[in-house]
Specification:
The chain is mostly helical. It has one domain. It has 5 helices and no strands. The termini are far apart.
Length: 104
Amino acid sequence: MNTQTLYLLVATTLVLSANCSADKKSEAIDREVFVGVYSDLRIAAVETDSGSISFAGRDSILDAFGVTEEDLTIFLEAHVEDLEFMRDVWNDIELRMDRGDQVN
């Protein structure tokens, strides 16, 4: 493979990746919704003896926010490359957990 072909392949991959990321961002749930759902899931898990939440408990929290497990995954996929944004999201989740704030 010559250098020109390699550059073209890399450029095409980057363009497709950027388009995919933009599509995911438009599909993704709001940051505050993600923080609320994830915080509630973690708080519910921590409050159990086993440290994990039941499927029924998980589904109850997801239903309360009107989101699915796939919505959480899409949010993460949409923002995975923005390290500062994700750091701030995890910090918000940690702060909410420290306060014990359950939104629902």
